[in-house]
């Protein structure tokens, strides 16, 4: 799967950084949204060092995108639990559309 390398959210261009590690921080999180750095970091390994599934990686990208939307548009009023639920819904809708990223990293439908 080709993952998007960047995405624009609320006028901010976020770099999507995939890291070949099991967690982004010491709390075993697999993703991180950082507004100041304009980055969405996502771990691509499981804790046992096996490769995370494409679905798990894309769901994490969606989750971190929702954190960015929450920060920019909602003044971070959504809780982690609300962001998690909302991002699952967004991921379900996007995956249903069978979108993938082309070489320019724009989401396009699979034909
Ligand atoms: Zn989160």
UniProtKB/TrEMBL annotation:
Pfam families: SprT-like. One of its GO terms (biological process) is response to stress. Residues 29-75 form the SprT-like domain. This is SprT-like domain-containing protein. It comes from viral metagenome.
